[in-house]
Automatic annotation (TrEMBL):
Required for vacuolar assembly and vacuolar traffic. Residues 882-914 form the Vps41 C-terminal RING finger domain. GO terms for cellular component: HOPS complex; late endosome. SUPFAM superfamilies: WD40 repeat-like. Residues 1-55, 921-941 are annotated as: Disordered. This is Vacuolar protein sorting-associated protein 41 homolog. CHCR repeats lie at residues 622-769. WD repeats lie at residues 102-132. The lineage of its organism: Eukaryota, Viridiplantae, Streptophyta, Embryophyta, Tracheophyta. SMART domains: CLH, WD40. One of its GO terms (biological process) is intracellular protein transport. PANTHER family: VACUOLAR PROTEIN SORTING VPS41, VACUOLAR PROTEIN SORTING-ASSOCIATED PROTEIN 41 HOMOLOG. Pfam families: Beta-prop_Vps41, TPR_Vps41, zf-RING_Vps41. Belongs to the VPS41 family.
Amino acid sequence: MSTARRAHPLLQNGAGGDDGDDEREEEEEEDGDEEVEDEAAEDDEEEEEPRLKYQRLGGSVPAILSTDAAASIAVADRMVALGTHNGTLHILDFQGNQVKEIAAHTATINDISFDADGEYIGSCSDDGTVAISSLFTDEKLKFEYHRPMKAIALDPNYSRNYRRFATGGLAGQVLVLTKKTWGGYHKKVLRDGEGPIHSMKWRTDLLAWANDAGVKVHDMKTDRGIAFIERPKGIPRPEFLLPHLVWQDDTVLVIGWGTSVKIAAIRTDLSQGLNGIQRTIAAVGSEKYVDIVGSFQTSYHISGIAPFGDLLVVLAYIPDEDEKEKKFSTSVTSRQGTAQRPEIHLVSWKNDEVTTDALPIHGYEHYKAKDYALAHAPFSGSSNAGGQWAAGDEPLYYIVSPKDIVVAKPRDAEDHIAWLLQHDCHEKALAAVEAGQGRTELLDEVGSRYLDHLIIERKYAEAAQRCPKLLRGSPSAWERWVFHFAHLRQLPVLVPYIPTENPQLSDTAYEVALVALTTNPSFHELLLNTVKNWPPTLYSASPVISAIEPQLNSSSMTDTLKEALAELYVINSQYEKALSLYAELLKPEVFEFIEKYNLHDSVRDKVVNLMILDSKRTVHLLIQHRDIIPTYEVVDQLLHTDRNCDQRYFLHLYLHALFEIDIHAGKEFHDMQVELYADYEPRMLLPFLRTSQHYRLDKAYEIFAQRELVREQVFVLGRMGNAKEALSTIINKLENIEEAVEFVMDQHDDELWEELIRQCLQKPEMVGMLLEHTVGNLDPLYIVSLVPDGLEIPRLRDRLVKIVTDYRTETSLRNGCNDILKADCVNLLVKYYHEARRGVYMASMNDEVHGNRVDDGSSRASERSSSVRALDIKSRTRCGARCCLCFDPLPIQDISVIVFYCCHAYHLSCLEGGLDLMRSNSNQDSDNGSDDEDGSPSGESRMRCVLCTTAAA
């Protein structure tokens, strides 16, 4: 697959050369960047995320390389060893800080090797020496070979396995030295006479080296050769392009030489090779053999190679055209100052390139392929080829040039997120952060950049929708974006997502949001919903009200905005203003609002709107509070409204309800009410006409005449005194004799009877009906006598029979009632007479005084009682409170008084003189031994009123 070549800016942690080199490098980097940008523009659509990131090694490295040049490097688990051209071995930590310095050689250090435990380090140099030093003790060994030594490999178990190591150089011998038990070293030559040894790597029991002939693998346990892999054809001599060996694991050897890459797998049986490639090379008689499981050619020179999980990291040197034409026929590999940047290629075993990164190495234009080296830190983990390396499971790659060291390592989650953001993949970046990749703090940065991207793309709605997820519970972030949206005039799209709690923002933020919704009618619905949903304690309603009120009389004012303003008035305790808007908007809840806030006085100028909303409830409200809502104001509003409504019907409902509660409350509008009744409820006219005294009869009659309301006309005519016309209307229009008779009876006018008879005689049928309904009121014979001869009256016989029968019945009932009445009168008079003959004895004043004697205040009470008694007697007797016989005043001391029911009063002594006469009369009356007429036994002495008895006699 094709990939875009990227130039990576490096983080410089230290000076890497003199100022002139830096300036030259910056200029060259700018030129290179322009070239890379051009290439990237061509393949932008195919660009994939890089797998590696780069950083210059800082610490002590810039200072070391400022006076020396790097020649070789090796990496252990805990440290890095850097060999220079002056023969010094620098032990560094992973940040480049020098830990130890070893003056091991006097010339260029060609190769460095650590044991597996990282306790010993071996190096070889062009000065023909091999040095082995302990990193934690003072133990040092040095071997002289008098020929430049190019490769060294310590036994991985050097400290535990007889201090064994292998080395080789221009002498062409592969030497294995083993420490003897009794001292000294045993030297063994594994190979000789095949040319200089250029590279050597030891893994477990396997030792691999490269010479002019090719690569050989030797089993150190069995001391047998396993395989020989020939040198690729067509590549220059090793002194110009060195072979590079690296063990990917215990059984896989990667070989990079010139433009060829081979992957050799060590097998222990005869099964099929990896990836379906059959075994190609095997050592005769050996249990182990080698399969070439991967092989490909490159278009560049290989300056280093290392494993990257299932991929390979290749340090590539790009030859110029002259070098390609010469095809390595000469020793000149590049012209001075024209070399290209080295590159890191990440490729598969089938040479499928994943990424390609151009490295801005200091002074790269002056270097050759063999001036570069690539080393990697050993790691035991495995890579995730489809994603990122796990923390702590990432290898480090050191790209070495004479004056610069660059560290490459797999991009972590944060690098992945940064790349996604750089390439506008904000959703993927956000998903990666939320999945736990990278630091939690990245969410704020990713969110902010995502929102910035959406704003730049003018995707305001999407940006607003993302805010709750991206800004989370940060009040400051929310407020910043609220004001940013406000600056962009896009705040309405954010309002539905602004939080009201967790977090709660400043009141200014909420006020700005609400004010922004007042500017455009399309936002008014959102404004209303927001005002209803947001707690009123979050903001002050005054700024929002001030923004809306200037629009009240403009074309931008909508009903929704009015309702929102009403809600704000309520929040601001301006209930009367809110009521005006609710009434104007005809909101059904306005009645509950009036009751809740006791706004009955404010209803006075809103009658029409309330009537339109709910006439029944409005009438009830107006009647219930008629003391504060005058009738004339209600009528005036209904009469002069310009609203499109049936104001006369509303007026009828109101006046009717008012009349039922208080007949005098709207008396000045009774003339109007007559007309309203005639239009909307004629059945109520007669009750109203009979009850009210405040309407004009002539106007009412005119109304009834126009609407042909006959009975109402009759009533008004009767009220006007025009009884004859009223009677004529009943007879001629209603043709209802019963109503005519009832009307005549109500008028109590005998002339109307004559008029009734006269008008009925003109219609035979009316005469018959008149005969049926006048029984008890007129003499039927009188009516019959007035009937003209020859006038045919329908059903006359039956009607006469009924008249006679009804007359007899009526006469019988009348006589019976008279007899009963007379008998009742006689009986009551007799009873009254008997009661009136009985006297009432009243004790003397002395008796009362002695019978009611009390303390010192008794005389005063006696006087008061006497006065009251005298007044009582005077009020209940005739003759002015004097005795009817002696005419002296009744209240005389020590004389009792007798008062009869006829109201005549006597002194008891005055009546005693006439007792004999009354007794003699009583004896004469009772000779037969019978009872007295009043029911008392005969012979009993009784007092009787002298005056009444004398008059009766």
